[in-house]
Amino acid sequence: MAAVQLKAKYAGSALGIWWAVVTPLLLAFCINFIFTAVFKAAIESYTLYLLAGILPWLFFNAALSEATNSFLVSSPIVKQGLFPREFVPIASVLSNFLNFLIGFIFLLPVFILCNHKVLGAAPSLLFILPLHFLFIAGLGLLFALTNVFLRDLGHLLSVGFMVWFWVTPVFYSLEMIPFPFRWICLLNPMTYYVEAYKQVLFNAKPPSVPSFFILLLLALGFVLAGYRLFLKKEAALLKKI
Question: Rounded to an integer, what distance in angstroms lies between the CA atom of residue 100 and that of residue 25?
C-alpha cells in the first residue's frame, strides 16, 4: 500500500522521484537567500544548516498531512477491513518515509563531502531515522482518528503547520532564542528530532545519550498513545466514516 501511494504521488511527473531531492534543495536555497542576503544570518555554511533541518521537517509535514486525512480518503478500504485498519495512516507515513529516504540518500553525500567527519557520525542515523518514523506514525494515527470525529482538524493543519514550522529550529538554532521564550521550542517534540539531524549532518557529532533517550520516549509514547486511542475508537470509527 505504501509503495502504491509513493508511485501515485509522482505519476505523470516529468521529474518523478527526483522531486524528493529537488524540493528540499529549492526550499533551502530560497530561505538561504532571505536569511543571508537580506537578514544577514551569521551561521557558517548556512545552506547546509538549513538542509539538515528542512529534510526531516518536509517528511514530517507531508506524512502528517496525508495521515490525518487517510481514514476519510480511504473509507471504502477501512470499512472492508481487508487488513488491520490502523495500517491506513501508517501506510501514508511509510510512503512519505520512503520518499524522504530517497532524497536523504542522495543528499547525504553532500554533507559528507563538505565535512568528512559526518561519515563518523552517520551511524547514529540508523537510530534517529526509525525513531523519527515511529514518532510520526504514532502522531499520524492520533491525528487521523481525531480528524474523523473533529473534521476541522484537517483544515486547521494548513495554518497549524505554519505556526509549527516557526517554533521548530529549522532555520535558526535554539541558542538564538532568548531564554524566556526558549521553552516554546522545547515543548515542541519536532525540535528534538530536527536538532538530532543537525547534530549529525551539520555538527558531525552523534547526539548525546540523553538526546537519544528523549527521541525514544517521544517515539514510544506517541505510538502507544495512538494505538490505545485506536483500540478505544475503532468501533465508533466505522460509524463515522
Answer: 13
